[in-house]
Amino acid sequence: MTDSMWQGSGVDLDAYLSRVGYLGDVAPDLATLRGLHAAHVDAIAFDNLDALLGRTAVPLDLDSVQEKIVRRGRGGWCLEQVVLMAAVLDRIGFTFTAFAGRTRIRTGSRFGPALHVALCVELDGERWLFDVSFGAYGPHAPIRLAENSRLEGDWPFDLVREPNGEHVLRFLRPEGPAELYGFTTDARYPSDFELLNHFCLTHPRSPFNHRMVLQRTRPEVRHLLAGSTLTEIRPAEPAIVRELDVEEMLSAPEEIFGITLAPDDVQTLWKISDGP
């Protein structure tokens, strides 16, 4: 196949499908798009641990991302996951662009940096928001990218359009809608990812370089660990929040989030967490 900037020819598609447990046929159609989305978020956690482990860089080249997430069983933050997912969709034959969103749910602001990246897939004359890396509050399936679009089910979402032209993705919780992020569909490219990656790894305002942030979206429950605070979310129920002790924090990557860590990395996290 002719290569593109999304490097579909370089992805080990069979290994990826095995990693996420996807057993169906693959084709550039809506059934595949939905199936891959559900399988990916169920299997692969949001994981910022490299930023805490003294890594001087979080590589975004496809080979490094595949080695980390597919072969070593780690998660990744949104930029890594989008690099991997874009290569998979490119290999299968989907048409898409990337865009960046300004996170609202944890910042309380509509004007923060546009650090979150997701994909806009064009299929049969419609556009679909395809976001596998927002974490515990993110969608479990693609959502049609249109004003007042809704994703129904146990985990409902909608999209609204603001007067300034931004789309806003909302998680429809029992206590009321939670605005996740605002975005336009202006195209972003892999070179833009490198700038965002550098901010996330090094900037003092980054939310990801000073405490553990792990997130996972599963069909029956969602988990978010921020520092020592674990939030558990179930359909149509108030969130449960509790504080973890150091031992619980260090076992959480594998036991709750399905992340495989090397023994040396566990020891480093123990030291960072003021363990003995």
TrEMBL record:
**What are the alphabetically sorted keywords of the record?**
Transferase
Q: What GO annotations for molecular function exist for this entry?
A: acetyltransferase activity
Q: Mind telling me which Pfam families this protein's record contains?
A: Acetyltransf_2
What the record says about family reads:
Belongs to the arylamine N-acetyltransferase family.
Q: What is this protein called?
A: Arylamine N-acetyltransferase
Q: Which organism is it from?
A: Streptomyces caeruleatus
